[in-house]
Specification:
Blueprint lengths: L1 E3 L27 E13 L2 E11 L4 E11 L5 E10 L4 E12 L2 E11 L4 E13 L3 E9 L5 E11 L5 E9 L5 E11 L5 E9 L5 E13 L2 E10 L4 E11 L5 E10 L4 E11 L5 E10 L1
Amino acid sequence: MRLRLGLALIIVLFVSTAWADSSSRRKAGKSQLREQSTHEYVYEAGRMVESIQRVYDANTSLIRTIVVSNTWDEMGRTLRVERTRTDAHDVLVESVVTDYLYDGKGYVGFDRRVADGADAQIRREEVRNHVPVLEVGMVRETRIYGPDDALIEFRYSTTDRDERGRLVAQDESTFSPKGVQTRRFRQEYSHTRAGELIGLTRYRFDKNDDEISREVGTRSVEDRFQTTTEWILYDAKERVTGYRDENIYRNEEGRIVQRETVLYNADGYATRERSTVISYDQNGKVHARRTMVRTF
């Protein structure tokens, strides 16, 4: 039986949080609603088979609709995800089809094709796990092809873990078709001795492996209902270019009920705020989501 879950009435509460360093982060002036979106979900046999996102402008006029359909096998594994985006007039703008690949019981990667409204290919991706590379080891390989199916770039992604199996770093290098590095991204994780994640640092490098930007995040658990990550953004010369605060709020059952992200400029003034409220059905499945984007 296919059950379509309608949108429940959601009251969006933007939480005003008092920071310890109030001089570095502040909201000045009135915010202005820029965009809002709603999600509804369809389940079959306990699995989500479709989600529908509708995006509206500040005047609640429809901008676009995004529909995602999932196909599962008898083992509960995702086989295919189809995503379509239509404009305000219900005209198809883009479609994305992702096929997930397995070797027996193991997941080996996926193939993805992105096309325009006329089904002409925009790009194609091939992602494979556990690919051996000389002098590097096992990597996750991503190959990107263009409209004519010619290789545009490829990426090697690696992960590092400590002796306790905790993730401590992820590294992704992007190369031209001739194998020349064009850019690199690295993310490092910091943990307490008890294993709790307390910090993240994200680096971006150019083709010569010179750092071009860095984001340093400090994670804190206010209580069992709220987790906060405060980010400071730097350029290559160690100058602060901005801040970002991310808050996650949970209910009594530990489920996420709200996500809030606030962006600040280098002077500490808020420029953009995004808040998402999530509701659940009686079985604990996501029932609906509503997102609002505001600027200052």
